[in-house]
């Protein structure tokens, strides 16, 4: 089995939770894909890193991250499995009022080509918020990569960004 096949099995076995849920956007759904159960899993996390590094192998970037919390372990997995030096960053949901008051934590992103990641993207609102903060900080966002696309592709592309997902809902046997 390939990394991609192994990771898909982890997701369908451990992350898909059926039942009524309210999503980040306020929309209601009949299932949740809880990818934190995957990105923080000792055996699945390295697969996340390898699969997303492979998915974006032809894109030129040297830092990766997104809106906390879902994106954080995705970026860390990519950092640890990259075949080149790759930094990670965390975009806070809001700035903090003490310390250095940074909205984006980690090595400086200004002037760098960065990849925005998500565990899953539904409306694209979270990743677009991260992208706004990155651009404000002087980074060049070269694209968006997610583990599971839950429908955000058109919105992200309409904002002028390339968008790739390791899995669609159909890949996981789920309906939109
Ligand atoms: O595309 P969207 O409609 O924005 O939804 C997707 C977002 O929702 C989830 O995060 P959530 O808001 O639950 O926060 P968390 O990562 O802090 O758990 C997920 O990790 C994405 O960031
Ligand atoms: O849209 C969301 O908030 C969302 C959907 C989903 O399946 N998983 C998740 O973590 N967030």
TrEMBL record:
Annotated positions binding 5-phospho-alpha-D-ribose 1-diphosphate: 92-93, 96, 98, 118-126
| Chain residues that bind orotate | 122, 150
Q: What is its EC number?
A: 2.4.2.10
The residue ranges of the Phosphoribosyltransferase domain are 42-153
Its required cofactor(s), as named, are: Mg(2+)
- What are the BP-aspect GO terms? 'de novo' UMP biosynthetic process; pyrimidine nucleobase biosynthetic process
Q: Which InterPro entries match?
A: OPRT, Or_phspho_trans_dom, PRTase-like, PRTase_dom
Keywords from the UniProt entry: Glycosyltransferase, Magnesium, Pyrimidine biosynthesis, Transferase
What reaction does this catalyse?
Answer: orotidine 5'-phosphate + diphosphate = orotate + 5-phospho-alpha-D-ribose 1-diphosphate
Pfam hit, one: Pribosyltran
Q: In which pathway does it act?
A: Pyrimidine metabolism; UMP biosynthesis via de novo pathway; UMP from orotate: step 1/2
Against NCBIfam families, the record matches this protein to: pyrE
The record, for HAMAP family, names:
PyrE
Assembly with partners or alone? Homodimer.
> What protein is this chain from?
Orotate phosphoribosyltransferase
Species source reads: Catellatospora chokoriensis
Its encoding gene is what? pyrE_2
